[in-house]
Amino acid sequence: MKKSATRTFGILTSGGDCPGLNAAIRGVAKAANQKYDMNIIGISEGYRGLIAGDARLLKPSDFSGILTQGGTILGTSREKPFKEEDNLRDSQMGRKKSDAILENYKKLQLDCLVVLGGNGTHKTACLLKQEGLNVIGLPKTIDNDIWGTDVTFGFHSAVDIATEAIDRLHSTAHSHNRVMVIELMGHKAGWLSLYAGIAGGGDVILIPEIPYSTDSICRHLLNRARLGKRFSIVVVAEGAVSRKDSSLPKSDRKKKKKNNDDLTIGYRIAKEIGESSGMETRLTVLGYQQRGGTPSPYDRLLATMFGTAAADLLYRGEYGKMIALEGTRIVTKQLEDISGRLKQVPADHHLIDTARSVGTCFGDE
Ligand code: F6P
Asked: Which atom of ligand 1 is nearest to the CA of 192?
């Protein structure tokens, strides 16, 4: 076998954690170590560890037996090394975070940096590539909002968790003739609520991409009641926005959200439905359960596929790319092509038609 282009690489996990991170770490590390005899430097807590030089050589025992383990053995953070104000402050304290990364990359004698993360992580990865570092990205997030890949690992585990929660709400909603509102994660894109809402038989699905009107929601719920269905399930993405608020300038929306920070969107919608329709409503905010626990079998498979594909890129010296899934094929995308882009639910997405065909309301009619 010809000599590997990569002798030693660093690996870090960055951004919100999710099931599948350890499966991906295992995929990269086992393939790189066993197939290509590479050295693997585990970097703690995302880019924060690379800034601080908090890194260690991983032994095979470190990445064995972690396929089914939730979370990340490396820890994570939402550190953004190139964020302006932080950099200015750090430069006044002696050095910029990004310079510290370049120094530690050299000090650790890395040939490449493998990053597992979401949009913010890949934006930083692209900037590091422009600074001359070799970087490879693996797309991770429960939101599935990374451009360039059909799906990210973590997403289907969250869909399974959210669907199971919605299933459980049906029986208690039916017993009490209540409207059960469940708020799911997904602050910029509504993929998780769309998938789990359909899979869980949600009667109303509210996503950031389709501004809703409370009147439309209440008409739908009252019509269901008239037809004898006196209970309903309303699935709300945390980033859903009313028609009224969607017409506000972004700065006003941010201010309004800040003032309402303790009142989640789910709380506000449950309150508005109760007041406008007179129907008894209750709220469940599923929160961090969607990011916890063991990965689904699908995510174990996807994360392992992504990880082993990254090891092959390391061997061939194909840097500056993100691993992606297109259909059933593992492909790669240039970091420049995905950085800064958000994958939202298109208005004409086939799943929106599918949901409407079974009578689901999106709050827009
Ligand atoms: O980006 C994934 C995500 O889970 C979002 O869906 C959610 O809004 C956010 O992370 C929560 O961020 P944090 O973990 O910093 O509270």
From this structure: 6
Q: Which residues of 29-39 are buried (b: 16+ CB within 10 A; e: fewer)?
A: bbbbbeebebb
Encode pLDDT of 77-134 as tens digits.
999 999 877 777 777 777 899 999 999 999 999 999 999 999 999 999 999 999 999 9
Q: What is the average per-residue pLDDT within 277-300?
A: 98
Q: Which of 78, 155, 185 to mutate to test the pocket of ligand 1 (most atoms within 8 A of CB)?
A: 185
pLDDT, averaged across the chain: 96
Residue to probe by mutation, ligand 1, list 78, 142, 289, most atoms within 8 Å of CB: 142
Distance 16 CA to ligand 1 centre (A): 5
Residue of 54, 90, 99, 143 marked catalytic: 143
Looking at residue 154, its amino acid is: G
Per-residue pLDDT of 310-344, as tens digits, reads: 999 999 999 999 999 999 999 999 999 999 999 99
Contacts 24+ apart (CB under 8 A), 322-329: 322/122, 322/125, 322/136, 322/137, 322/138, 322/139, 322/146, 322/148, 322/149, 323/136, 323/137, 323/138, 323/139, 323/149, 324/139, 324/148, 324/149, 324/150, 325/149, 325/150, 325/151, 326/149, 326/150, 327/150
Rounded to two decimals, the pTM is: 0.96
Arithmetic mean of pLDDT, 193-197: 98
Task: Write down the residue that tokens 């510290």 correspond to.
Answer: 100
Give catalytic status of residue 215 as yes or no.
no
pLDDT greater than 70 at residue 261: no
